[in-house]
Amino acid sequence: MPRKLAFIIAFFVSVNTARAADPHETLAHAKAATGGRAWDDIRTIHTKVKVSTGGLTGVAESWEELQSARYADSYELGPVVGAEGFDGKVSWSQDTSKQVLTHDGGEEYEAAVNEAYRRSLAYWFPERWPAAVVEDGGERSEAGRRFLIVRITPKGGRPFEMWFDATSYLLDRTVEKGGTETQTTHISDYRTVGGVKLPYSQQGTNGETQYDQIIAVESTEINPMIDLVRFEVPAPPPRDFEIAGGVASISLPFDLVNNHIFLSVRLNGKGPFRMLFDTGGANVLTPTMAKELGVASEGALQGQGVGEKSEDIGLARIEKVELGGLTISNQVFYVFPLESMENVEGAGPFGLIGYEVFKRLVVKLDYEHKIATFTTPEAFAYNGGGSVMPFTFNGQTPQVDGEVDGLAGKFTIDTGSRASLDLHAPFVEKNNLKAKYEPKVEAVTGWGVGGGARSAVTRASTLKLGDIVVSKPVTELSLQTKGAYTDTYVAGNVGAGILKRFNVTFDYSRQQMIFEPNANHDAVDDFDRAGMWINGDRDAFSVVDITAGSPAAEAGLKSGDRITAIDGKSASDVTLPAARLKFRSDPPGTKVRLTVQTGKTIREVELILRDLI
After folding, report:
1. Is residue 1 one of the residues assigned to a domain?
2. Domain enclosing residue 332, as ranges
3. Is 167 among the domain residues?
4. Structure confidence at residue 450 as a pLDDT band (50, 70, 90)
5. What is the CATH number of the domain that holds 152?
6. Phi, psi for 554 (deg, rounded to 5)
7. Pairing of β 213-222 and β 241-243
8. Which residue, of 40, 271, 327, 410, is most buried by count of CB atoms within 10 Å of its CB?
9. Can you give the pLDDT at residue 206?
10. Three-class SS string for 352-373?
């Protein structure tokens, strides 16, 4: 679900006069048009609204303290209940189970600053929150209407545009670019309340209209008394988990498949189910799993990942999540059609868990021995010699400062990624990395929510994260135009190809990670030596993508071919992870015999594996 439920009062901004050279003069005209001096006497606002999005309906409230630029929101949308706010320095959010995340930097913080700027009417009262930039954005015409644009960048925030009807001087929309998408909010239905004009309707969109967010104001209260505690970061919730026997720690084995961690999990006493364990991942069920559990799914919200397509996701509630002797109660799960991913992973059915577990416990992932250990935060103390690395949150995912070949940036730490190092498309473009590395390989390098992800592949010299140095990691320069790898705030994503060189402890309560080198630390980071991406296809492997000039291309393989046997062994007797591992890890020069079906034609081909980067 979208993080921000922006409320109507957030968008009282100025109107622009035609070709105004001085935007501050324009702001003065706007103030006069929507209430003039009546705005001077407004100190607090309390708004109640109805919300609908993705087939769900609900209610929300907002509270604003204008002079100090503080605000707080709460919402109930189907099974999802939450809150978020800004205390003047830190932005915070609280999820359905009352777990709290705070941000004092990054994309979430910049978005909160923009909210605070608009809600405090700082474009009219700059002493409340200064702007780094206030400028005329020119004129636009659309559907027979003329719009005047003001562009503002609040101090500590990010640029946003305001489009005003040139005839009425009323705000028609705001446009703000985030890390991966541009959000446009259309505003209408102005009514006079307390001597000022307020819009009573808004519709937010990122361009995929089926996921639009529609808000209708039910009531607005001017200058109510507000307890200032409402704006403060909420206290931690009561404990909603327990470990059998009252012990402080428990260890469980995990499977490492395609560099993904899979745990065995019971839900509402049923299962066990196979669940992918992802540092920032939400709780996810497939529709098949939801049906087996007998739980209902509500809504059709927008789900996105590394691919460029969106998928509908519903919401369901699970009363009990069990990982061995660890039980977590009352969890909201997204219901998402991951069944198609079974052909990508070569395993299934499976769901996903992550953040909700990491947030509550200290989690050590022993990649060397494939053991996950869960410890209560108060019982955890570290006295070893590993590298302790502080982190902030990018959404729900740990993010650290680092650099790749001397280029500084922020990197997310992602156990849910099979890759070693993915560099995001904006970072690649900004630093002209295709010219720097001159990659010879362009290919599908991953597959996730939304489909395949394409990258140019090279090998960086060094990746530094804190005092950790990783030499010659396989580095994927994203070619995506939508999705997670187009985030302008993040340089790249560090996946399990690098993480598995260490035993890693995640301590979300203290916002730190601990990296201990293991037996795999100095292993060579290999890339596919066949030059193709394959997925499962019943009793065969389907060729999805061929790398130009690769052994697969030279052998005449094409997208759409089906590999029915490898070295004389039927594909039905070879797991997809094992096939991928062979193509990646067998030494250069290895000859691999494939039986290939193209339409009704069956032929034998030979690949000679070689290093492509």
Report:
1. no
2. 241-361+368-376
3. yes
4. low
5. 2.50.20.10
6. -65, -25
7. unpaired
8. 410
9. 85
10. EECHHHHCCCEEEEECCCCEEE
Q: Among 458, 485, 517, identify where a domain stops.
A: 517
Look up the CATH number of the domain holding residue 572: 2.30.42.10
Q: Which residues are registered as beta bridge partners of 327?
A: 242, 322
The span from the CA of 173 to the CA of 160, in Å, is 11
Same domain? For 83 and 203 the reply is yes
The two structure tokens encoding residue 15: 């109107």
CB 502 within 8 A of CB 437: no
pLDDT category at 16 given cuts 50, 70, 90 is very low
Q: What are 504-533's pLDDT values in tens digits?
A: 999 999 999 999 999 999 999 999 999 999
Please tell me whether the overall predicted TM-score, pTM, comes out greater than 0.70 for this model. yes
- Does 275 lie in the same domain as 127? no
- Whether residue 526 is contained in a domain is answered as no
- Average pLDDT of the chain is 90
Q: Encoding tokens for residue 283?
A: 């709780």
The CA distance from 74 to 60, in Å, is: 6
Q: Is the dihedral of CA 495, 498, 501, 504 positive or negative?
A: negative
pLDDT band with cut points at 50, 70 and 90 for residue 485:
confident
Q: Are both 316 and 413 inside the same structural domain? A: no
pLDDT over 70 percentage in the chain? 94
Domain membership flag for residue 613: no
CA distance 408 to 471: 16
| Co-location of 166 and 274 in the same domain | no
**Residues 292 and 248 placed together within one structural domain of the fold:** yes
Which residue has better confidence, 515 or 484? 515
Q: What is the pLDDT of residue 449?
A: 66
More confident residue, 269 or 345: 269
Binned at pLDDT 50, 70 and 90, residue 7 comes out as very low
Tokens of 319: 């009363």
Same domain, 84 and 152: yes
The count of domains in the chain is 4
Statement to judge: residues 506 and 387 lie in one domain: yes
Phi and psi (nearest 5°) for 317?
A: -115, 130
Average the pLDDT over 55-83 and give the result.
93
The predicted structure's pLDDT at residue 313: 73
In terms of domains, do 202 and 246 share one? no
Buried b (16+ CB within 10 A) or exposed e, 324-351: bebebeebbbbbbebeebbbbbbbbbbb
